[in-house]
Design a protein that fits this description.
Layout (H helix, E strand, L loop, with lengths): L2 H19 L3 E9 L2 E9 L2 E10 L13 H17 L1 H4 L3 E10 L7 E5 L4
Parallel strand pairs: 3-4
Antiparallel strand pairs: 1-2, 2-3, 4-5
Length: about 120
């Protein structure tokens, strides 16, 4: 696995641990369809959160959330709708929300984590 992929996977693992500690139940990870991939799908109460995780070792190339531009946000909405179409029973009665988690630091397990709810 490439170093970039390992960093991303470690960041997603950290995001999952954070979400679980915050009362979310993780119901899917790295779900793929022809349009792309959803990093994390989580539920807390009546909210279904589709979560995009961005991990960086430093801010040298900008904040991780800057990578989520308008085009990427539209794509994430389409992916969320595709996930719901395949999993309607898990989405029934839930409010859909797109969140973003940014992780910045040399070691993802201890790096700074920022969770932005309703980010997109």
């Amino acid at each position: 696995m490439a170093a970039k992929d390992e960093l991303g996977r470690a960041g997603e693992d950290r995001a999952v641990a954070y979400l679980e500690a915050s009362g979310y139940r993780i119901i899917d990870r790295n779900w793929r369809c022809p349009q792309g991939e959803v990093d994390i799908v989580a539920v807390r109460g009546a909210t279904l959160a589709v979560v995009e995780v961005k991990t960086r070792r430093s801010l040298a190339f900008g904040h991780p959330l800057e990578a989520i531009d308008a085009r990427k946000a539209q794509r994430l909405w389409r992916l969320a709708a595709a996930w719901i179409a395949v999993h309607p029973e898990q989405a029934r009665g839930k409010r859909l929300r797109l969140d973003a988690i940014a992780i910045v630091g040399a070691e993802p397990a201890t790096a700074a984590l920022e969770h932005v709810e309703d980010a997109l």
